[in-house]
């Protein structure tokens, strides 16, 4: 049983934002991450504002510019099987299919997947770690086999989302509603690295709600994929993962975005890889060089050095599959 | 935060196993009392503000479980799992990790398998909930249950209700699943006894049994 909290399920977005006042009010969307956090008392909560009645935040539709809009309350399962997403934004469908278990995908939402809390066992456990306002990161010197190798800065979580890297690879934007009006934030700018603020994962303010995920039109010649390597075949978080979105013409890469999961506290754009593969035909030498470049700045902790060859091997395999496509 | 009295009241211990025997027995009593209380509190529930449900006060919700409507007093923090077992006596749904990791608590909500431990009872209002008990056809086992018996798809049986609900959910969406779809469908259900090959066989047989009935 969790601590006591009050609960409200407003019928309008405006009401929902109004209810989110006070530091310890939290949004309940699918609840799959939230309820686990409540059980483990990861953060204080005295009120849940359920947005599950806001049906306008559900569903997938084409936008006038030829892109796609996905309501924040659309379930992960719905994203994974949607024909248009599978065809045009394959990496997102694959990322969604790789999230959690079937039960979690049926319940968890795309907005929630982007706003979920880190999975670090110190953060989730009874440790007053840096991210919870304490004095240090226990993973730095502790059991850090699943922690980050890039972007760590006093805190060494990895971002747990499988959909965020794909969304970032497509250049997606989040539409956010707030009491003083809305704003659009690119997925790339949504996540906050520990170097900027170690106590938050996203730029979302207390009374703001992510309402929509907007995908730009998929250009001709775009091919994408999401690969997730985990410790077991059935559901688990990524040890290493990558979303690739490549535009190719005549076997040549015109433009690319490569975003890693399981590597860093935020979805990690591997610009080094992109630089090397752009304007190439993805020959064996280029692929080897690109995979090595992705890890050039990696700083492993005491127990996660295995991630470096894992990422390299995975990147080589995935780039190989993209050749000539 | 967590108080001992809380644990005793809810019948749930904070140890990893979830329920103590003593807590379980106590909570059966609590459940029966709450069910009686429901009828007498109906009038006061009508007056309750539809706005914010206060933290420690129970409120009336209407749950549609196995095609029967139940009006119950629940606290906002109660999970559907807790309410099903301790207040409706539907103990076919099992308690495991209570964190969405094991699938022992799997029920169908609007025909989709979900973790009852990660669903607040207040969130389940207005949805169609199906538990293991709801698969019975009178005194007879339903086809998925029957298939699990025939294929000997259990050892200790603890994970079995959850496995069955995941298979039931699969077959409602895809009456003739491929072996890969079956493995995928039960991938959120752990079996500590490792009966997985039998579970996959049982799911295939269940598809046949359903088709015949
Ligand atoms: S009890 Fe383990 S998933 Fe719900
Ligand atoms: S039969 Fe024992 S846990 Fe599955």
How would you describe this protein?
The complex is a heterodimer of chains A (325) and B (213). Chain A is α+β, with helices and mostly antiparallel strands and 325 residues long. Chain A has a domain of 103 residues: 2-Layer Sandwich (Enolase-like, domain 1), CATH 3.30.390. Chain A contains 13 helices and twelve strands. Chain B has 213 residues and is of the alpha+beta class. Chain B folds into three domains: 45 residues; 79 residues, Ubiquitin-like (UB roll); 77 residues, Orthogonal Bundle (DNA polymerase, domain 1), CATH 1.10.150. Chain B contains seven helices and five strands; from the N terminus they run H-H-E-E-H-E-E-E-H-H-H-H. In chain B, helix 4 packs across helix 7. The longest helix of chain B has 27 residues. The termini of chain B are far apart. The N terminus of chain B is likely disordered. The interface between A and B is large, with 35 and 41 residues. The site of one FE2/S2 (inorganic) cluster has 12 residues of chain B, from loops.
